[in-house]
Amino acid sequence: MPQLNEYRTPSPKAVTLMRITSVLTTFFVLIVPAAAAWIFAGDVLGNLGWILVGAAVLISLLYTLIAPPIRFRRYRYMIAKDRIEIIEGLLFIRRTIIPIDRIYQIDVRKGPLDNAVGVEKVIVTTAGSSAAFRFLEPEVADEIAMYINGTVLGKIQSKMKGDAQDV
Predict the structure, then answer these.
(1) Are 52 and 37 in contact (CB under 8 A)?
(2) How many whole angstroms separate alpha carbon 28 and alpha carbon 38?
């Protein structure tokens, strides 16, 4: 059973996954467009094209070195008897609170990058949204999923007993 009413941190492997996603993100968002601009407008840009590509690479490196440790320190999750809380973010910190009795689906997933690093995520879905516990060790992910499932089933069964007594 997960520790209740206590914020927990993700697996230390999370920093590696965050670095990989930072490299991929900055590659496609900064480096590829800068290189394309230099290739297609190199005559117009001149030396400015080299500066553009160099700046994109430098920003990518800085983002890859600085952002993952900050994101890791800020990422927290808590499971309480009545709710789930997830806190995450880099510049803007988002706190997601999901009432346990609103959850109707629980998924344990791992994509190719998660699989390469050895982490999983638990995605809880309500009628209006979903939230994910990311960067979890496989055993912890299974433990969380089974605990939430048991808690939701317990609430449903107690509600059904209450409805049956009202009749």
Answers:
(1) yes
(2) 15
Around Cβ 139, how many Cβ atoms within 10 Å? 9
- Within a domain: 34: no
What is the C-alpha separation between 153 and 157, in angstroms, rounded?
A: 6
Q: What is the pLDDT of residues 63-92, one digit of tens each?
A: 999 999 999 999 999 999 889 999 999 999
Spatial distance between the Cα atoms of 14 and 8, rounded to a whole number of angstroms: 13
How many domains is the chain built from? Answer: 1
Strand 76-79 relative to strand 93-99: parallel, antiparallel, unpaired? unpaired
Query: Residue 30 falls within a domain, yes or no?
Result: no
> Is residue 121 included in any domain, yes or no?
yes
**139: domain range?**
90-166
102: number of CA atoms within 13 Å, CB side? 13
Residues 112-162 pLDDT 10s: 999 999 999 999 999 889 999 999 999 999 999 999 999 988 888 887 887
Tokens representing 134? 């990311």
Is residue 114 situated within a structural domain?
A: yes
